[in-house]
Amino acid sequence: MLGSRRLPRKIVAKSVDSSQLPRKRLMSKIRFHDIQAKAYPGFGRCIFCDKDAKSVSLTDEHIIPRALSLKNEILIRNGSCSECNAYCNQSFENKCINTNFVSYRKFIELKRRKRGKNSKEIKLPRAVIGDFRNLQHESKIFDLDDFFYPRLLIMPVFLPAGNIVGCDRGGDCVNPSFTTFNLGGPSLNFLLGDVPISTQKPMAHTEFSLMLAKIAYCFAVAELGIDGFDRTQILNLIFGRRHDAYNYVGSASQFEYINRSRFHRIYVRQKRPYISIVVHLFAQCGSRPFEIYLCDAPDENL
């Protein structure tokens, strides 16, 4: 047992040689079902700034970021210019992926772009014996072997988007709650006995909401067409020209049947006085869906 001894900075639970453990027996039998791959045709111009292919270089726009995809991807061929793509990556997407989703990418081995020989390995947050909120001694913080790290998927739960429920949510994330799901892994109770282990999990709420808005916008363009809805305000949000993210992004405003047939799910909802996109990341793990307001529906949809 670990007891009350001072822990080394790098430990393996109970000093077990992780290479000798029956990993298949300890791992949960979760088989992920990938999204259906789809490549939408481009529009001959950037879906964000409308610059045409003659004036800018266009690249494929991944509707769900590559870092969160398994093998299959959904994208718009030659959908965005390098300037708009770089803005989204640097302003919110990279921070969100490297903060909120770092452990998920590590555990379920999501496909990552190879960045050459100097690519850094994903480093997981440090673990602690006890509760991080009550931490008093630095000696209780340690690096836990990847195999023993808690396989937990933590997702924020927002209030429904303000534009959907008819109130002003503004740009501040007020009192978010969280849901936690098991991605499958060894039982820490089996490995550590009664020793409690917790981890510190930072969250980038605003960046996450902007990433959801971008996913929803790209999917709407792919499904409805670049001129199929009023893009003005959702683009203003994505590109920092307005700052009321939670008027556009929130958890689903009505009960959603949780279809776990695919790893991620995304679809258009336009049966009410507005058009919205339901983005259900990690649907197969039992996470809650998000609903992103796009714009008011045209008269024929009322």
Keywords:
302 residues, alpha+beta, 4-stranded antiparallel β-sheet, 7 helices, 21% helix, 21% strand
Order of helices and strands: EHEEEHHEEEHEHEHHEEEE
Biggest sheet statistics: 4 strands, mixed
Helix content: 10-25%
Query: What is the C-alpha radius of gyration, as a whole number of Å?
Result: 21 Å
Low-pLDDT windows of residues:
1-29, 111-117, 187-191
Given the helix and strand composition, which structural class is it? alpha+beta
Q: What is the first-to-last residue Cα distance?
A: 65 Å
Q: How much of the polypeptide forms β-strand, as a percent range?
A: 15-25%
Q: What's the overall geometry?
A: globular
Number of helical segments? Answer: 7
Reading side by side through the largest sheet, how are the strands ordered? 1-6-5-9
Give the overall average pLDDT: 78
Question: What report would you give on this structure?
Answer:
The protein is an alpha+beta fold and 302 residues long. Helices cover 21% and strands 21% of the residues. It has helices at 23-26, 82-99, 102-107, 162-165, 188-192, 205-224, 232-238, and strands at 10-11, 38-40, 58-62, 74-81, 127-129, 141-144, 152-157, 177-182, 197-199, 249-251, 265-269, 274-280, 290-296. A hairpin with a 4-residue loop joins strand 11 (265-269) and strand 12 (274-280). Helix 2 packs across helix 6 and helix 6 packs antiparallel against helix 7 (232-238). It starts with 9 loop residues before the first strand and ends in a 6-residue tail after the last strand. Residues 1-29, 111-117 and 187-191 have low confidence and may be disordered.
